[in-house]
Amino acid sequence: MTESRRSILLLADWLPPDFGAIGQYALQHAEKLAAEGHSVCLVGFSSTAASAEEATCGDGHLTVIRIHRRTYDRSAVLQRAWWTLTANISLLWAARRQLRTSDEVVFTGSPPYLLHFIVPLKPFMAGRLRYRIADFHPECLIATKPRASWFLRALQQLTWFWRRRVDVMEIIAEDQRQRLLAHGIRADRIDLRRDVSPVSFDGAHAATPPDALRGKTIVLYSGNWGVAHDADTFLAGLAALSLAERERIGLWLNATGARAEAVRDSALQLGITVAHTAPCPLSELPGVLLAADLHVICLADAFVGLVLPSKVYACIDSAKPILFIGAAASDVHTLIQGAHRQAYARADVGEWRAVAAALRAHLEPAS
Fold first, then answer.
1. Are 286 and 317 in contact (CB under 8 A)?
2. How would you class 218 by CB atoms within 10 Å of its CB: exposed for 0-12, middle for 13-18, buried for 19 or more?
3. Which candidate in 33, 285, 298, 300 could, as Cys together with 229 as Cys, close a disulfide (CB 3.0–4.6 Å)?
């Protein structure tokens, strides 16, 4: 095996056209590796049908294997646990041949806890094992609890046991590095590889907003609005606006997640015009992002260094103004501030006055 030409196996969860940031970035990276001359196999899930596709990319080769899996109710704990167990097993079974023969195996934190299934198989692998740690599990679950149970504490200890046995820990953000170092991961085993925007804006035009938002200043939240994303500060900022100011805002939730509906309902009660649509296909995302007058990105303090809202890359590349509600210690702030591509405002979680000020700054002059 030479570094110039390798066989690489990538494991992810939902692959496009299904909605899922991990799968979108995994497919993007797989195509890049294949274009560099490597033989790449990407295995993930599809909610519609199983498939296997092969393509020649320059001197390289790309195989994409989709396993048919049903979606599930994330709020149902037992259903979610069963789905996670069977998903991890089916993913490894589908990739069993490549696991044994690939020069490198790359897996992520999605499906959750894949680490616990794949690291015990490491003695049977020919190549090195690389963990692209997009989200920290079970730390994300622990962050939602007032106090971690004995089971979660034990699971966390076991997780660190397996993490220390991975050959390479690949991080997506610098705020993750310190967390790994603090738990005994050697610096020479940590690689930083940031994601890039999964879409291109070359030749893209702004999409037509939903009819209800015509003539409004479009405040767009696109992607997942889950438990890791603060919502209260944003809503408090909206509430601080005058009624006349609120009437000029059109809130577009191109979003899913545990808090998306709650944000929609609360904003409607405040007199905000809201359009709530399902996350658009990746091919339509550039137009949707360009339709915004202001992008909103939120991150709760407890999740800094655990997750990085992946939407940040496309929001930056859209060159549209961004409001980030979250800590300066997050790499979201580092990335946007370093881009120098658009107007940017940041508010700490709880600083609703700063949110209200940022919203006012982007309202169109009253007619």
1. no
2. buried
3. 298
Q: Which amino acid is at 239?
A: A
**What is the strand order of the sheet 190-192 is part of?**
51-57, 60-68, 39-46, 7-14, 104-108, 128-133, 168-171, 190-192
Asked if 297 and 309 count as a contact pair (C-beta separation under 8 A), the reply is yes
Alpha helices by DSSP H, listed for 295-349, are 311-317, 331-339
- In the numeric block, the tokens 């407890």 are attached to 302
Res 291: pLDDT? 97
pLDDT at 213 over 80: yes
Other CB atoms closer than 10 Å to residue 4's CB: what's the count?
9
Name the average pLDDT for the chain.
93
Count the Cβ atoms, other than its own, within 10 Å of residue 105: 27
Q: Of 334, 299, 350, nearest to 172 (Cα)?
A: 334
Q: CB–CB of 75/129 below 8 Å?
A: no
> In the prediction, which pLDDT does 367 show?
40
pLDDT, tens digit, for every residue of 237-270?
999 999 999 999 999 999 998 899 999 999 999 9
Asked, as a colleague might, if the bond just before 321 is cis with ω within 30 of 0, I would say no
pLDDT, tens digit, 9 for 90 and up, residues 5-35? 899 999 999 999 987 888 999 999 999 999 9
DSSP 8-state assignment for residue 146: S
Length of the chain: 367
pLDDT at 4: 73
Look at the block and give the residue holding tokens 């992520």: 108
Q: What structural domains does the chain harbor?
A: 7-192 (3.40.50.2000), 211-361 (3.40.50.2000)
- At residue 48, φ and ψ (nearest 5 deg) are -105, -50
Mean pLDDT of 136-156: 93
| Among 227, 297, 217, residue whose Cα is nearest residue 262 | 227
Band of residue 285 on the pLDDT scale cut at 50, 70, 90: very high
pLDDT band for 2, please (50, 70, 90 cuts): very low
Which residue spans within the chain are E strands per DSSP? 7-14, 39-46, 51-57, 60-68, 104-108, 128-133, 168-171, 190-192, 217-224, 249-256, 273-277, 294-298, 322-325, 344-347
